[in-house]
Amino acid sequence: MCGKDDNDWPMGDGGGPNTSFVQENGTINPLPGNPASPEVNQQADNDYYFAGEYSTVISSVIAVYGDYAPVGTVSANEEAAERAFAGGDNDLRYHFNLPDTLLPTDLMSVTFDALNLDGSAGLTDPRYGIEVYFNGVLVQTQIVIRSDQLNKAYTTPQFTLASVNAEVGPGADNIVSLKGISYSADGGGSWMGIDYVQLNNPSELIPPPVFPWAVGKDDNDWPVGDGGGPNETELSIRFREAQQARRSISRRTMTTTSPAPIRQSSPATVPTHRSVWFLPTKRPPSAPLPATTMICAITSTFPTP
Questions:
Q1: 16 and 144 together in one domain
Q2: What is the CATH number of the domain that holds 146?
Q3: Which of 88, 150, 191, 259 keeps 20 to 30 A from 230, CA to CA?
Q4: Chain-wide mean pLDDT for the chain?
């Protein structure tokens, strides 16, 4: 974790969550950068280093940035990091080793929080885009940050170590990159600040959403279907309607009739009966008559009330 969720840029000691965020210098330096940037505005570079050994470059990083000589041993977390995207300075890179206990199938995600935006007078739509990369592999497509999106944690979809060419153990120079997308030419402003960035190792897979999704379909009916989704058997809705009708009756007595004998079971069985409820003051005929007040009709998978 570089920085922490404090909605601020305090000066700290020890790096990591206590990293001092300093004003960016306005340019993007080539890899590998300096692992000992001073805690002085405009003196830090684009590369922040956690303590570790850096002797092995990763092929997908080289494919994006070109070859470079890794920095070797970094004995302590770097103290300073650039705090924002600004002008052409739109690449914030975080270097780290991964524990050798991790497996290629282990899941990871990245969380970040945008702190502030350029609020200069005359901007028509202050905003900034951000993408997230792991070892040069895109893991989060562009999110456009406006004022309503500030001070909110955004977490990328989960990905496996293998899918981003991650390498474990001392030596491997793994890099998470936040890349800014400026809209300054369209009234978006010229900078956006970062509160913190964090690498996560979640234990359970969150399945990605599938769109479009639907429950039921536009058929003006309640058919019994198979497979759920658009073929959902809409029992729960009708059961709630039945419950509401039942609450509207002052006496507890309830009479039920059906075209065939009603089978009651526990647990519930496959629905085969249509139950018609009437006010208890009326005698239920074999079929509803004009003089009969019908409350509702349901097909149930639960014991008949």
A1: yes
A2: 2.60.120
A3: 259
A4: 82
| Residue-range definition of the domain harbouring residue 166 | 2-200
Side-chain half-sphere exposure of 255, counting CA atoms within 13 A: 13
Tokens of 280: 């208890």
The model's pTM is 0.69
Asked whether residue 24 falls in the same domain as residue 46, the answer is: yes
pLDDT tens, residue by residue, 42-70: 999 999 999 999 999 999 999 999 999 99
Q: pLDDT digits over 241-297, tens only?
A: 656 655 554 444 444 444 444 444 444 444 444 545 444 444 454 545 444 444 444
Same domain, residue pair 222 and 184: no
Please report, as a single letter, which amino acid is at residue 152: K
Interacting residues of 195 by C-beta distance below 8 A, sequence separation 6+: 3, 4, 5, 6, 7, 8, 112, 113, 114, 115, 151
Nearest to 132 by CA among 103, 94, 100: 94
As a whole number of angstroms, the longest Cα–Cα distance in the chain is 91
Residue 169: which region, alpha, beta or left (left: phi > 0; alpha: psi -120 to 50)? left
